[in-house]
Design goal:
Radius of gyration: 23 Å
Number of domains: 2
Shape: globular
Structural class: alpha+beta
Bound molecules: adenosine-5'-triphosphate
Helix content: 25-40%
Order of helices and strands: EHHEEHEHHEHEEEHEHEEHEHHEEEHHHH
Number of helices: 15
Strand content: 5-15%
CATH class of the largest domain: Mainly Alpha
CATH superfamily of the largest domain: Transferase(Phosphotransferase) domain 1
Strand order of the largest sheet: 5-9-10-8-7-6
Protein backbone atom coordinates (compact mmCIF):
# COMPACT_ATOMS: atom_id res chain seq x y z
CA UNK A 1 0.00 0.00 0.00
CA UNK A 2 1.50 3.26 -1.08
CA UNK A 3 0.71 5.15 2.08
CA UNK A 4 2.34 2.50 4.19
CA UNK A 5 -0.73 2.14 6.28
CA UNK A 6 -4.13 0.65 6.10
CA UNK A 7 -6.80 2.96 7.30
CA UNK A 8 -9.78 0.75 6.90
CA UNK A 9 -10.82 -2.62 5.78
CA UNK A 10 -9.94 -4.27 9.02
CA UNK A 11 -9.75 -3.65 12.68
CA UNK A 12 -6.02 -3.80 12.47
CA UNK A 13 -4.52 -0.57 11.35
CA UNK A 14 -0.90 0.05 10.68
CA UNK A 15 1.39 2.87 11.35
CA UNK A 16 4.24 3.59 9.02
CA UNK A 17 7.73 3.48 10.47
CA UNK A 18 8.11 7.01 9.31
CA UNK A 19 6.63 8.91 12.17
CA UNK A 20 8.21 12.12 10.98
CA UNK A 21 5.57 12.20 8.31
CA UNK A 22 5.20 15.96 8.41
CA UNK A 23 8.84 16.79 8.43
CA UNK A 24 9.04 16.61 4.69
CA UNK A 25 6.12 18.89 4.04
CA UNK A 26 5.96 22.60 3.74
CA UNK A 27 2.41 22.84 4.97
CA UNK A 28 2.68 20.61 7.96
CA UNK A 29 -0.41 20.96 10.08
CA UNK A 30 0.98 22.02 13.40
CA UNK A 31 -1.90 20.40 15.12
CA UNK A 32 -0.32 17.05 15.53
CA UNK A 33 1.97 17.43 18.43
CA UNK A 34 0.02 20.12 20.14
CA UNK A 35 -3.14 18.15 20.19
CA UNK A 36 -1.71 14.71 20.75
CA UNK A 37 -1.10 15.50 24.33
CA UNK A 38 -4.03 17.73 24.82
CA UNK A 39 -7.16 15.77 24.25
CA UNK A 40 -9.96 17.20 26.30
CA UNK A 41 -10.88 14.03 28.03
CA UNK A 42 -8.14 13.08 30.47
CA UNK A 43 -9.20 9.52 30.22
CA UNK A 44 -8.24 9.56 26.58
CA UNK A 45 -4.81 10.84 27.42
CA UNK A 46 -4.33 8.03 29.83
CA UNK A 47 -5.04 5.51 27.14
CA UNK A 48 -3.28 7.29 24.33
CA UNK A 49 0.16 6.37 25.54
CA UNK A 50 -0.81 2.76 26.06
CA UNK A 51 -0.88 2.05 22.38
CA UNK A 52 2.44 3.34 21.24
CA UNK A 53 4.38 0.74 19.38
CA UNK A 54 7.89 -0.45 19.20
CA UNK A 55 9.20 -1.36 15.83
CA UNK A 56 10.09 -4.98 15.52
CA UNK A 57 8.30 -6.03 18.67
CA UNK A 58 5.48 -8.46 18.63
CA UNK A 59 3.10 -5.61 19.29
CA UNK A 60 1.37 -6.43 16.06
CA UNK A 61 -1.30 -8.54 17.51
CA UNK A 62 -1.79 -7.31 20.97
CA UNK A 63 -4.26 -4.84 22.16
CA UNK A 64 -5.13 -3.59 25.55
CA UNK A 65 -8.47 -4.82 26.59
CA UNK A 66 -10.74 -2.86 28.84
CA UNK A 67 -9.30 -4.37 31.96
CA UNK A 68 -5.85 -3.31 30.78
CA UNK A 69 -4.65 -6.86 30.38
CA UNK A 70 -2.90 -7.66 27.15
CA UNK A 71 -4.47 -10.35 25.09
CA UNK A 72 -3.87 -11.92 21.75
CA UNK A 73 -6.44 -11.56 19.08
CA UNK A 74 -7.83 -14.76 17.66
CA UNK A 75 -6.55 -16.54 14.59
CA UNK A 76 -6.78 -13.59 12.25
CA UNK A 77 -4.13 -11.73 14.16
CA UNK A 78 -1.63 -14.55 13.90
CA UNK A 79 -2.35 -14.65 10.22
CA UNK A 80 -1.80 -10.92 9.99
CA UNK A 81 1.58 -11.20 11.63
CA UNK A 82 2.64 -13.97 9.29
CA UNK A 83 1.50 -11.91 6.35
CA UNK A 84 3.42 -8.92 7.45
CA UNK A 85 6.57 -10.91 7.78
CA UNK A 86 6.01 -11.99 4.21
CA UNK A 87 5.05 -8.82 2.46
CA UNK A 88 4.83 -5.76 4.63
CA UNK A 89 8.09 -5.62 6.41
CA UNK A 90 8.10 -1.86 6.03
CA UNK A 91 4.98 -1.59 8.14
CA UNK A 92 4.69 -1.73 11.83
CA UNK A 93 1.50 -3.57 12.48
CA UNK A 94 -0.37 -2.63 15.57
CA UNK A 95 -3.88 -2.23 16.68
CA UNK A 96 -4.56 1.42 16.69
CA UNK A 97 -8.16 2.04 15.88
CA UNK A 98 -10.03 -1.20 15.80
CA UNK A 99 -13.48 0.06 15.11
CA UNK A 100 -15.60 3.04 15.47
CA UNK A 101 -17.42 3.12 18.68
CA UNK A 102 -17.55 -0.60 18.66
CA UNK A 103 -16.56 -1.15 22.18
CA UNK A 104 -16.28 -4.58 23.50
CA UNK A 105 -19.86 -5.00 24.57
CA UNK A 106 -20.14 -6.83 27.83
CA UNK A 107 -22.77 -9.19 26.64
CA UNK A 108 -23.18 -12.88 26.56
CA UNK A 109 -25.01 -14.92 23.96
CA UNK A 110 -28.13 -14.76 26.00
CA UNK A 111 -28.05 -10.99 26.26
CA UNK A 112 -29.15 -10.67 22.70
CA UNK A 113 -31.95 -13.11 22.55
CA UNK A 114 -34.35 -13.23 19.73
CA UNK A 115 -37.55 -13.15 21.70
CA UNK A 116 -39.64 -10.35 20.37
CA UNK A 117 -41.31 -7.93 22.65
CA UNK A 118 -43.58 -5.12 21.59
CA UNK A 119 -41.47 -2.70 19.60
CA UNK A 120 -41.24 0.66 21.29
CA UNK A 121 -40.23 3.34 18.91
CA UNK A 122 -38.48 5.67 21.26
CA UNK A 123 -36.46 8.12 19.24
CA UNK A 124 -33.50 8.78 21.42
CA UNK A 125 -31.61 5.59 21.97
CA UNK A 126 -28.20 7.08 21.98
CA UNK A 127 -27.64 7.93 25.53
CA UNK A 128 -30.19 5.68 27.03
CA UNK A 129 -29.56 2.32 25.53
CA UNK A 130 -25.85 1.99 25.09
CA UNK A 131 -24.09 -0.28 27.54
CA UNK A 132 -27.23 -1.49 29.23
CA UNK A 133 -27.37 -5.23 28.81
CA UNK A 134 -30.80 -5.48 30.38
CA UNK A 135 -32.20 -3.51 27.49
CA UNK A 136 -30.59 -5.55 24.75
CA UNK A 137 -33.78 -7.30 23.79
CA UNK A 138 -35.56 -3.93 23.65
CA UNK A 139 -32.83 -2.69 21.36
CA UNK A 140 -33.23 -5.70 19.15
CA UNK A 141 -36.97 -5.19 19.01
CA UNK A 142 -36.42 -1.59 18.10
CA UNK A 143 -33.95 -2.55 15.39
CA UNK A 144 -36.34 -5.13 13.97
CA UNK A 145 -39.03 -2.45 13.94
CA UNK A 146 -36.77 -0.18 11.94
CA UNK A 147 -36.42 -2.81 9.23
CA UNK A 148 -40.08 -3.84 9.35
CA UNK A 149 -39.41 -7.30 10.66
CA UNK A 150 -40.89 -9.15 13.59
CA UNK A 151 -38.16 -11.74 13.87
CA UNK A 152 -34.78 -12.21 12.21
CA UNK A 153 -34.93 -14.21 9.01
CA UNK A 154 -32.63 -17.09 8.06
CA UNK A 155 -29.28 -15.86 6.75
CA UNK A 156 -29.06 -18.72 4.24
CA UNK A 157 -32.59 -18.21 2.94
CA UNK A 158 -32.00 -14.52 2.52
CA UNK A 159 -28.82 -15.01 0.51
CA UNK A 160 -30.60 -17.58 -1.66
CA UNK A 161 -32.99 -14.86 -2.82
CA UNK A 162 -30.16 -13.38 -4.88
CA UNK A 163 -30.14 -15.21 -8.14
CA UNK A 164 -27.08 -13.54 -9.61
CA UNK A 165 -23.39 -13.94 -8.74
CA UNK A 166 -22.07 -12.57 -5.49
CA UNK A 167 -18.46 -11.46 -5.02
CA UNK A 168 -16.65 -10.29 -1.95
CA UNK A 169 -15.32 -6.79 -2.65
CA UNK A 170 -14.15 -5.51 0.69
CA UNK A 171 -13.91 -5.94 4.37
CA UNK A 172 -13.65 -3.79 7.44
CA UNK A 173 -13.16 -4.01 11.15
CA UNK A 174 -16.27 -5.96 11.84
CA UNK A 175 -17.95 -6.35 8.52
CA UNK A 176 -17.64 -8.13 5.21
CA UNK A 177 -18.73 -6.45 2.01
CA UNK A 178 -20.09 -8.32 -1.02
CA UNK A 179 -21.31 -7.19 -4.42
CA UNK A 180 -24.30 -8.74 -6.14
CA UNK A 181 -23.87 -8.55 -9.91
CA UNK A 182 -26.94 -7.10 -11.62
CA UNK A 183 -27.64 -4.39 -14.18
CA UNK A 184 -27.57 -2.07 -11.21
CA UNK A 185 -25.20 -3.92 -8.87
CA UNK A 186 -25.87 -3.82 -5.17
CA UNK A 187 -23.56 -4.08 -2.22
CA UNK A 188 -24.24 -6.14 0.89
CA UNK A 189 -22.54 -4.85 4.01
CA UNK A 190 -22.84 -7.73 6.47
CA UNK A 191 -22.30 -6.88 10.12
CA UNK A 192 -22.45 -9.42 12.93
CA UNK A 193 -23.67 -7.73 16.08
CA UNK A 194 -24.62 -8.07 19.69
CA UNK A 195 -21.99 -10.42 21.08
CA UNK A 196 -18.60 -9.85 22.60
CA UNK A 197 -16.15 -8.18 20.25
CA UNK A 198 -18.94 -7.34 17.85
CA UNK A 199 -20.72 -4.15 16.95
CA UNK A 200 -23.19 -2.94 19.58
CA UNK A 201 -26.84 -3.11 18.67
CA UNK A 202 -27.13 0.61 19.42
CA UNK A 203 -24.37 1.36 16.89
CA UNK A 204 -26.17 -0.67 14.24
CA UNK A 205 -29.34 1.28 14.99
CA UNK A 206 -27.54 4.59 14.55
CA UNK A 207 -25.81 3.59 11.32
CA UNK A 208 -29.06 2.27 9.91
CA UNK A 209 -31.05 5.37 10.81
CA UNK A 210 -28.46 7.74 9.39
CA UNK A 211 -27.96 5.72 6.22
CA UNK A 212 -31.74 5.62 5.69
CA UNK A 213 -32.10 9.32 6.24
CA UNK A 214 -29.31 10.36 3.88
CA UNK A 215 -30.25 7.80 1.29
CA UNK A 216 -31.89 10.13 -1.18
CA UNK A 217 -29.35 12.95 -0.89
CA UNK A 218 -26.83 13.56 -3.63
CA UNK A 219 -23.38 12.37 -2.62
CA UNK A 220 -24.59 9.79 -0.13
CA UNK A 221 -24.97 6.07 -0.55
CA UNK A 222 -28.46 4.78 -1.30
CA UNK A 223 -29.91 2.27 1.10
CA UNK A 224 -32.13 -0.10 -0.82
CA UNK A 225 -33.01 -2.45 1.96
CA UNK A 226 -31.86 -3.50 5.41
CA UNK A 227 -32.51 -6.90 6.97
CA UNK A 228 -31.74 -8.65 10.20
CA UNK A 229 -30.73 -12.25 9.64
CA UNK A 230 -29.73 -15.06 11.92
CA UNK A 231 -27.62 -18.19 11.52
CA UNK A 232 -24.30 -19.47 10.29
CA UNK A 233 -22.56 -17.93 7.30
CA UNK A 234 -23.94 -19.32 4.02
CA UNK A 235 -21.47 -21.53 2.18
CA UNK A 236 -21.70 -19.48 -0.99
CA UNK A 237 -20.35 -16.48 0.93
CA UNK A 238 -17.65 -18.57 2.57
CA UNK A 239 -16.54 -19.72 -0.88
CA UNK A 240 -16.37 -16.13 -2.02
CA UNK A 241 -14.53 -15.18 1.15
CA UNK A 242 -11.92 -17.86 0.35
CA UNK A 243 -11.51 -16.60 -3.20
CA UNK A 244 -10.92 -13.06 -1.93
CA UNK A 245 -8.49 -14.39 0.66
CA UNK A 246 -6.49 -16.23 -1.99
CA UNK A 247 -6.29 -13.14 -4.17
CA UNK A 248 -6.01 -10.34 -1.67
CA UNK A 249 -5.26 -11.99 1.66
CA UNK A 250 -8.04 -11.13 4.01
CA UNK A 251 -7.22 -9.58 7.35
CA UNK A 252 -10.35 -10.98 8.92
CA UNK A 253 -11.03 -14.35 10.39
CA UNK A 254 -12.77 -16.83 8.06
CA UNK A 255 -16.46 -16.29 8.91
CA UNK A 256 -17.24 -19.96 9.37
CA UNK A 257 -17.16 -19.82 13.15
CA UNK A 258 -20.48 -18.12 13.75
CA UNK A 259 -23.03 -19.91 15.89
CA UNK A 260 -26.53 -20.58 14.61
CA UNK A 261 -27.79 -17.96 17.09
CA UNK A 262 -25.63 -15.23 15.51
CA UNK A 263 -27.42 -12.11 14.38
CA UNK A 264 -26.31 -9.98 11.44
CA UNK A 265 -27.53 -6.73 10.02
CA UNK A 266 -27.26 -6.60 6.24
CA UNK A 267 -27.34 -3.22 4.55
CA UNK A 268 -28.15 -3.46 0.83
CA UNK A 269 -26.54 -0.41 -0.70
CA UNK A 270 -26.07 1.07 -4.12
CA UNK A 271 -22.62 0.43 -5.55
CA UNK A 272 -20.67 3.63 -5.20
CA UNK A 273 -17.55 2.71 -7.17
CA UNK A 274 -13.94 2.53 -6.01
CA UNK A 275 -12.76 4.07 -2.79
CA UNK A 276 -10.40 7.01 -3.09
CA UNK A 277 -7.46 5.18 -1.65
CA UNK A 278 -7.51 2.64 -4.44
CA UNK A 279 -8.47 4.90 -7.32
CA UNK A 280 -5.83 6.24 -9.69
CA UNK A 281 -6.55 9.86 -10.42
CA UNK A 282 -5.92 10.96 -13.96
CA UNK A 283 -5.70 14.74 -13.72
CA UNK A 284 -6.39 17.86 -11.67
CA UNK A 285 -9.86 18.32 -13.11
CA UNK A 286 -10.81 15.04 -11.54
CA UNK A 287 -9.01 15.88 -8.31
CA UNK A 288 -10.76 19.22 -8.03
CA UNK A 289 -14.13 17.61 -8.65
CA UNK A 290 -13.63 15.04 -5.93
CA UNK A 291 -12.94 17.75 -3.39
CA UNK A 292 -15.72 19.99 -4.63
CA UNK A 293 -18.31 17.22 -4.59
CA UNK A 294 -17.27 15.99 -1.15
CA UNK A 295 -17.58 19.54 0.18
CA UNK A 296 -20.98 19.95 -1.47
CA UNK A 297 -22.27 16.66 -0.11
CA UNK A 298 -21.25 17.65 3.42
CA UNK A 299 -22.77 21.11 2.94
CA UNK A 300 -26.08 19.58 1.88
CA UNK A 301 -26.01 17.21 4.83
CA UNK A 302 -25.37 20.11 7.20
CA UNK A 303 -28.16 22.22 5.77
CA UNK A 304 -30.73 19.46 5.85
CA UNK A 305 -29.84 17.44 8.91
CA UNK A 306 -27.05 19.16 10.84
CA UNK A 307 -24.96 16.27 9.61
CA UNK A 308 -21.35 15.61 10.51
CA UNK A 309 -19.63 12.58 8.99
CA UNK A 310 -16.89 12.37 11.62
CA UNK A 311 -15.03 9.57 9.82
CA UNK A 312 -14.52 10.66 6.23
CA UNK A 313 -11.23 8.86 5.59
CA UNK A 314 -10.41 7.93 2.01
CA UNK A 315 -11.86 4.44 2.34
CA UNK A 316 -15.23 6.07 2.95
CA UNK A 317 -15.24 8.22 -0.19
CA UNK A 318 -16.28 6.19 -3.21
CA UNK A 319 -15.81 7.39 -6.76
CA UNK A 320 -17.47 6.30 -9.93
CA UNK A 321 -16.65 7.56 -13.38
CA UNK A 322 -19.63 7.59 -15.65
CA UNK A 323 -18.83 5.47 -18.65
CA UNK A 324 -18.85 6.73 -22.21
CA UNK A 325 -22.37 5.50 -22.87
CA UNK A 326 -23.69 7.37 -19.86
CA UNK A 327 -22.04 10.47 -21.22
CA UNK A 328 -23.29 10.30 -24.76
CA UNK A 329 -26.54 12.09 -23.96
CA UNK A 330 -24.54 14.93 -22.48
CA UNK A 331 -22.21 15.08 -25.46
CA UNK A 332 -25.21 15.64 -27.69
CA UNK A 333 -25.75 18.93 -25.92
CA UNK A 334 -22.22 20.16 -26.39
CA UNK A 335 -21.45 22.34 -29.36
CA UNK A 336 -17.97 21.79 -30.68
CA UNK A 337 -18.21 24.69 -33.13
CA UNK A 338 -16.55 27.03 -30.71
CA UNK A 339 -13.38 25.01 -30.92
CA UNK A 340 -13.06 25.43 -34.64
CA UNK A 341 -10.63 28.18 -35.62
CA UNK A 342 -9.96 28.78 -31.99
CA UNK A 343 -6.65 28.63 -30.18
CA UNK A 344 -8.17 26.56 -27.43
CA UNK A 345 -7.12 23.01 -27.91
CA UNK A 346 -10.06 20.65 -27.78
CA UNK A 347 -8.51 18.11 -25.42
CA UNK A 348 -8.61 20.63 -22.57
CA UNK A 349 -12.37 20.93 -22.68
CA UNK A 350 -12.73 17.26 -23.22
CA UNK A 351 -10.76 16.44 -20.12
CA UNK A 352 -12.59 19.02 -18.09
CA UNK A 353 -15.85 17.52 -19.26
CA UNK A 354 -14.76 14.04 -18.31
CA UNK A 355 -13.75 15.12 -14.84
CA UNK A 356 -17.15 16.63 -14.31
CA UNK A 357 -18.72 13.30 -15.09
CA UNK A 358 -17.47 11.78 -11.90
CA UNK A 359 -19.77 10.84 -9.02
CA UNK A 360 -18.77 10.64 -5.41
CA UNK A 361 -20.56 8.67 -2.72
CA UNK A 362 -19.96 9.00 0.99
CA UNK A 363 -20.38 5.82 3.04
CA UNK A 364 -20.02 4.50 6.58
CA UNK A 365 -21.93 6.56 9.10
CA UNK A 366 -20.89 4.60 12.18
CA UNK A 367 -19.44 7.68 13.84
CA UNK A 368 -21.70 10.26 12.20
CA UNK A 369 -23.96 12.74 13.92
CA UNK A 370 -27.24 14.12 12.65
CA UNK A 371 -30.58 15.52 13.70
CA UNK A 372 -33.08 12.80 12.98
CA UNK A 373 -36.39 14.55 13.01
CA UNK A 374 -37.22 18.11 13.93
CA UNK A 375 -38.05 17.52 17.56
CA UNK A 376 -36.02 14.48 18.48
CA UNK A 377 -32.56 14.29 19.96
CA UNK A 378 -29.71 13.91 17.53
CA UNK A 379 -28.19 10.59 16.58
CA UNK A 380 -24.53 10.37 17.43
CA UNK A 381 -21.77 8.10 18.57
CA UNK A 382 -20.33 8.64 22.03
CA UNK A 383 -16.74 8.18 20.83
CA UNK A 384 -16.24 6.15 23.95
CA UNK A 385 -13.55 3.94 22.49
CA UNK A 386 -10.29 5.49 23.74
CA UNK A 387 -8.33 3.75 21.01
CA UNK A 388 -9.92 6.07 18.50
CA UNK A 389 -7.72 8.83 19.84
CA UNK A 390 -4.47 6.98 20.07
CA UNK A 391 -3.62 6.31 16.43
CA UNK A 392 -0.31 7.52 15.06
CA UNK A 393 1.34 7.96 11.69
CA UNK A 394 -1.46 9.27 9.53
CA UNK A 395 -3.32 12.56 9.51
CA UNK A 396 -6.57 10.60 9.82
CA UNK A 397 -5.75 9.80 13.43
CA UNK A 398 -5.03 13.42 14.25
CA UNK A 399 -8.45 14.30 12.95
CA UNK A 400 -10.10 12.23 15.70
CA UNK A 401 -8.06 14.13 18.29
CA UNK A 402 -8.89 17.44 16.64
CA UNK A 403 -12.56 16.54 16.71
CA UNK A 404 -12.30 15.85 20.45
CA UNK A 405 -10.83 19.32 20.78
CA UNK A 406 -13.61 20.93 18.75
CA UNK A 407 -16.45 19.10 20.45
CA UNK A 408 -14.94 19.16 23.92
CA UNK A 409 -16.37 15.69 24.27
CA UNK A 410 -19.95 16.92 23.74
CA UNK A 411 -20.48 14.53 20.87
CA UNK A 412 -24.23 15.03 20.72
CA UNK A 413 -23.91 18.75 19.98
CA UNK A 414 -23.63 20.15 16.49
CA UNK A 415 -20.08 21.09 15.43
CA UNK A 416 -19.97 21.40 11.63
CA UNK A 417 -16.33 22.35 11.99
CA UNK A 418 -15.61 18.61 12.17
CA UNK A 419 -16.62 18.44 8.50
CA UNK A 420 -14.02 21.10 7.76
CA UNK A 421 -11.41 19.01 9.55
CA UNK A 422 -12.21 16.05 7.30
CA UNK A 423 -12.12 18.27 4.21
CA UNK A 424 -8.69 19.44 5.25
CA UNK A 425 -7.68 15.78 5.62
CA UNK A 426 -9.11 15.13 2.14
CA UNK A 427 -7.06 17.97 0.66
CA UNK A 428 -3.97 16.56 2.30
CA UNK A 429 -4.61 13.10 0.89
CA UNK A 430 -5.26 14.50 -2.58
CA UNK A 431 -2.27 16.83 -2.63
CA UNK A 432 0.30 14.70 -0.89
CA UNK A 433 -0.79 11.07 -0.89
CA UNK A 434 -2.13 10.52 -4.39
CA UNK A 435 0.12 10.44 -7.40
CA UNK A 436 -1.48 12.76 -9.91
CA UNK A 437 0.21 13.62 -13.21
CA UNK A 438 1.66 17.12 -13.39
CA UNK A 439 -0.77 19.74 -14.70
CA UNK A 440 -0.67 19.67 -18.48
CA UNK A 441 -2.02 23.14 -19.11
CA UNK A 442 -2.86 26.39 -17.42
CA UNK A 443 -6.35 25.33 -16.42
CA UNK A 444 -5.11 22.25 -14.61
CA UNK A 445 -2.37 24.29 -12.97
CA UNK A 446 -5.02 26.73 -11.69
CA UNK A 447 -7.06 23.91 -10.19
CA UNK A 448 -4.02 22.53 -8.42
CA UNK A 449 -3.30 26.00 -7.05
CA UNK A 450 -6.88 26.32 -5.84
CA UNK A 451 -6.59 23.10 -3.91
CA UNK A 452 -3.29 24.20 -2.41
CA UNK A 453 -4.80 27.52 -1.40
CA UNK A 454 -7.76 25.78 0.21
CA UNK A 455 -5.41 23.46 2.04
CA UNK A 456 -3.84 26.50 3.66
CA UNK A 457 -7.17 28.19 4.34
CA UNK A 458 -8.64 25.14 6.01
CA UNK A 459 -5.59 24.34 8.08
CA UNK A 460 -6.87 23.81 11.62
CA UNK A 461 -3.91 25.28 13.44
CA UNK A 462 -1.50 27.75 11.96
CA UNK A 463 1.38 29.08 13.97
CA UNK A 464 -0.46 29.01 17.26
CA UNK A 465 0.91 31.54 19.69
CA UNK A 466 0.57 31.78 23.41
CA UNK A 467 -3.02 32.14 24.46
CA UNK A 468 -4.43 31.49 21.02
CA UNK A 469 -7.16 28.97 20.65
CA UNK A 470 -6.32 26.14 18.29
CA UNK A 471 -8.72 25.94 15.36
CA UNK A 472 -9.44 29.66 15.49
CA UNK A 473 -7.40 30.24 12.36
CA UNK A 474 -9.54 28.38 9.94
CA UNK A 475 -12.00 30.86 8.50
CA UNK A 476 -14.72 28.35 7.74
CA UNK A 477 -17.02 27.17 10.51
CA UNK A 478 -18.80 24.62 8.33
CA UNK A 479 -18.86 22.88 4.97
CA UNK A 480 -21.88 25.01 4.07
CA UNK A 481 -19.90 28.22 4.56
CA UNK A 482 -17.04 26.80 2.52
CA UNK A 483 -19.43 25.79 -0.24
CA UNK A 484 -20.84 29.32 -0.40
CA UNK A 485 -17.36 30.80 -0.52
CA UNK A 486 -16.31 28.47 -3.32
CA UNK A 487 -19.43 29.37 -5.30
CA UNK A 488 -18.66 33.07 -4.98
CA UNK A 489 -14.98 32.70 -5.63
CA UNK A 490 -15.01 30.34 -8.56
CA UNK A 491 -17.95 30.56 -10.89
CA UNK A 492 -17.03 27.68 -13.17
N1 LIG B 1 -21.79 0.97 -1.32
C1 LIG B 1 -20.55 0.56 -1.57
N2 LIG B 1 -20.08 0.52 -2.84
C2 LIG B 1 -18.84 0.08 -3.13
N3 LIG B 1 -17.96 -0.34 -2.18
C3 LIG B 1 -18.36 -0.32 -0.89
C4 LIG B 1 -19.66 0.12 -0.51
N4 LIG B 1 -19.78 0.04 0.83
C5 LIG B 1 -18.59 -0.43 1.27
N5 LIG B 1 -17.73 -0.65 0.26
C6 LIG B 1 -16.35 -1.15 0.34
O1 LIG B 1 -16.16 -1.82 1.58
C7 LIG B 1 -15.22 -1.11 2.42
C8 LIG B 1 -15.68 -1.19 3.87
O2 LIG B 1 -16.98 -0.58 4.02
P1 LIG B 1 -17.36 0.36 5.24
O3 LIG B 1 -16.34 1.46 5.35
O4 LIG B 1 -18.77 0.77 5.11
O5 LIG B 1 -17.19 -0.66 6.45
P2 LIG B 1 -16.91 -0.34 7.98
O6 LIG B 1 -16.94 -1.64 8.73
O7 LIG B 1 -17.85 0.69 8.46
O8 LIG B 1 -15.42 0.24 7.89
P3 LIG B 1 -14.56 1.03 8.95
O9 LIG B 1 -13.41 0.12 9.33
O10 LIG B 1 -14.10 2.27 8.22
O11 LIG B 1 -15.47 1.33 10.09
C9 LIG B 1 -15.17 0.31 1.84
O12 LIG B 1 -13.95 0.96 2.09
C10 LIG B 1 -15.40 0.05 0.34
O13 LIG B 1 -14.19 -0.32 -0.30
Amino acid sequence: MSSGMRTYGTGRRYVSKDNAIWASLDESPQALHILDTNVTNNELNKHASSFSIEIGKKASCVKKSEDESVKLLPKAADKTEERHKKSNSHLVPTIIVPSHGRNIAKTSDSDVNTSITESKMTENLNAGLQNRPQRKSTQLSYLLGLVDQQIPISFRDYIKTFKSSIYKIGEASYSEVFKVEKDEPIVLKIMPFGKENQIRCSDIINELKITKRLSSLEGYVDLQEAVIVKGTYPSILIKEWDRYDRQKESENERPDFFHSSQLFCILCLSHGGTDLEHLELSDWFETWNIFLKAAKALATGERKFEFEHRDMHWGNILIKRRNDEDLSYLLDEVSFDEFEDSNTSFPVSERSFTADSLEITLIDFTLARMRHTGSSSPIFNEFDDPELFSGRGDYQFDIYRLMAKVTKGQWGEYFPKTNILWLHYLLYQLLYKKTIPKPRDLREQQLKERLTKLFKLLEPVRRPHKGSCPLQNCAFPSAASLDEWINQQYDD
